[in-house]
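Subject: complex prediction, re-run

Hi both,

The earlier run crashed halfway through, so I resubmitted it with identical inputs.
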Amino acid sequence: MNIKITKCHGSGNDFLIIDEISNAYQFTEEERAQLAIALCDRQSSLGADGILFVMPSSVAHARMRVFNADGSEASMCGNGIRCVARYVCELLQVEEAVIETMKANLEVKNETDIYPNIPTYLVEISPVSFHTKDLPLQVSTDTLINEKITGLNQDLLFTALAVPNPHLITLVNKAVLESDIQEGLSKYVNGPNEYFPDGVNVSFVSILDKGSIYVRTYERGVGFTNACGTAMSASTLVSILNGYNEENSYVDVYNNGGKVRCYVHNQNNQYRIDLIGNATYVYRADVTFDWNALDGFEVANKQYFEAEAIQYKKLQDEAKKYVETHLK
Ligand SMILES: N[C@@H](CCC[C@H](N)C(=O)O)C(=O)O
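This time it finished cleanly. Structure:
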């Protein structure tokens, strides 16, 4: 089989876009998962955090399905939907669109550059739920907001929310960030455990200044990534609930892949989070493979977007310097 791939990233969280609008690909559910496992492997393959299938939709401009590198499907992908937003807006020659996702049809639009000459998109992150059943998180309470989970850690205070994929978030200082606490805890809750039967994305968040935070995420189905868009959005909301930032104002969210900007709307305690950030193309390529020998694929016509990479590195270097001087 021969497929066309567009590799892209949002804040260094990188994905392979497969366009099923322009190409009459037919994938079974099993094949979608197999493709993600085979093509996302960074040791032996193209390497990526996941695959974004861009598909026709009867209710929106396009549909996005997200498969993590381990082949699991997620309900949402904040960095990924910015890449899909750019891809679909350019394909349909529009400035804004609606993207159908597993649990919501989300508004996306081309936005003023977050950094000079960097393609930037605003995407809607919703619905937001603090009900533990919506993650799911198996505890006795309906919500978990700034609470301990003593079976995970004796000291940290956690907040659990779904946006709509599941997130477990805690506010920490530099010393905790530099420890191995996040890795050990994240591996536990993404393996056999009594709390998160479907796993969870785990974010450690530091307050950098008024209006700026730093987020590091261990992603369900992937591991540590440069950034996780839904996690950064959820973390912004948690920083607001803790009084460090405000609704209806911009928060700069720094990460190991650069930075994004979030804006939390509160409409009668129903939250909608705007996630604003880059959608950067890395390369386009043709991939040929045999379903019976997925490790034997061939790549041809690989074309890099070198100017985009050079420009994005300027943003990333500035973001790194800001974190180094403000993390405490
Ligand atoms: N990196 C994505 C989230 C991808 C799915 C997540 N790993 C999950 O399984 O929920 C983002 O930018 O939100």
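The CA atoms of residues 60 and 327 lie 41 Å apart.

- K.
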